[in-house]
Design brief:
Blueprint lengths: L1 H14 L8 E3 L2 E8 L4 E8 L2 E5 L2 E11 L8 E7 L8 E6 L13 E9 L2
Antiparallel strand pairs: 1-5, 2-3, 2-8, 4-5, 5-6, 6-7
């Protein structure tokens, strides 16, 4: 009897439409902030979509940066791929969200990298 109630509740979840997702626009690039823990240095770097930039010994590639439609200063999320050196396998590949950098962080003993915002022009 319990399993039947659970099955009915599970099917009921699919009967109702899910909430609409917020529309996003694609920026021209992103502004990233980095921290070198060993040297105690920090800085910001701008990178265009589908291009790469060197941060210390890391190569950071930006797939694209998105932001809420009509709100370019809103919460940015960017798809990043990070390589420890040119031609090496990536040590990070995924979406990083500006408002929640700890949600999907770069795990590196020396460098921290996070997204600040998308660029639009």
């Amino acid at each position: 009897m319990m399993w039947r109630a659970a099955a009915v509740m599970g099917l009921a979840c699919f009967a109702f439409p899910l909430g609409a997702q917020e529309q996003a626009e694609i920026g021209t690039g992103a502004v990233l902030r980095w921290l070198d823990r060993t040297a105690g240095e920090t800085g910001d770097v701008e990178v265009s979509n589908a291009s790469a930039v060197a941060i210390g010994k890391l190569r950071v590639e930006l797939g694209e940066c998105r932001y809420p439609a009509g709100n370019p200063s809103g919460d940015a999320f960017a798809f990043l791929t990070v390589h420890p050196e040119e031609g090496a396998r990536p040590i990070y590949s995924g979406w990083m969200i500006a408002s929640s950098p700890a949600l999907n962080p770069l795990e590196h003993p020396r460098y921290d990298i996070w997204v600040l915002r998308c660029t639009t022009g």
